[in-house]
Amino acid sequence: MLKSMKLFRGLTSVGVSVLMGTGCLMGVETDKSAKSEAKAEEKAPQSATGAASEIKEGENKVVKDTASSEVKKGFTDEQQANFLRTYGWVTFMQSGVKNLGLSAKEVEQVMNGVQMATRGEEAPCALGEVMEDLQAFLQEKSAAYEKIHQVEIKATAEKNRQAGKTYMENLLKTRPSIKVTPTGLAYEIIVAGDESQKASEMDSVEIRYTGRLIDGKVFDESKDKTVTFPLNGVVPGIKEGVQLVGKGGKIVLYIPSELGYGEFDIPSIPAGSHLIFDIDLVNILKNEAIKPVEKPESSKAN
Q: Are strands 179-180 and 186-191 parallel, antiparallel or unpaired?
């Protein structure tokens, strides 16, 4: 989950940069197009007003086609389509639109506004005139949705907690190798590792991991790479569980929602979810207290 959230924030930062860069480029091209249009109008008779517009559209098409062909040198059409859909998903999730509880028709209206912007058209309303009303409208939509959403989250969380409890009760009956700590964390040590080298909650660890829901769905994984993070910066179930195995060890953690993400409803992990983590502890980075440097004794005067 650490990896996906980091990637999520990274994509958002990239998105802002891309939007800013695109805005600058669009401004430059608009200026160029305006100059071309003005020159065309000077040379063309008054009755041929469509000629300048055709020149502007032609120049913009050349710019877009050139940019597209440059990108295609590195990625296939399918990859580009998936990248753009993913970027749209990230933009939607981070923009706050998700928290307005919009209907399908309302989402279509938002997308119409996006399309207007990409065509260089003016906003339907003058922002200076409607900004206060727009903000009030959005706040009202958000508040109304939040009330409904919180009720839904609590119901979902309770359902998932019960499902997790039932899942663990059945699992513990058939898997005596799974132990449960006083906090409620269940774990199974696959490889003990070097038990003389265990992490403390103040240390950082390097791990490989796969995170799953009880239905087997993988919500995050490091695959063939490793991830390094401080143990005091993760959910309680992972912090406690990683300390149970030595360096080089492998452990499976069964984390109830109260030791995981609780009632938080985050991408890929519904509220109240019971989490399963397969973890390989690759390395431990000890954060030992810095010892003061001993000063040499000063030589005594004769």
A: antiparallel
pLDDT at residue 46 in the model:
45
Does the pTM surpass 0.70? The reply is: no
Q: Which residues pair with 245 in a beta bridge?
A: none
* The token pair that represents 259 in the structure block: 């030791």
CB distance 228 to 206 below 8 Å: yes
Q: How many CB atoms within 10 Å of residue 282?
A: 16
- R_g of the chain computed on alpha carbons: 29
For helices 50-72 and 2-43, what crossing angle results, to 10°? Answer: 150
Q: Mean of the per-residue pLDDT values for the chain?
A: 79
* Residues composing the chain: 302
- Angstrom CA distances, 231 to 158, 162, 201, 285, stand at 28, 28, 5, 10
Domain architecture of the chain: domains with CATH? 2-95 (no CATH), 173-285 (3.10.50.40)
CA 53 to chain centre: 41
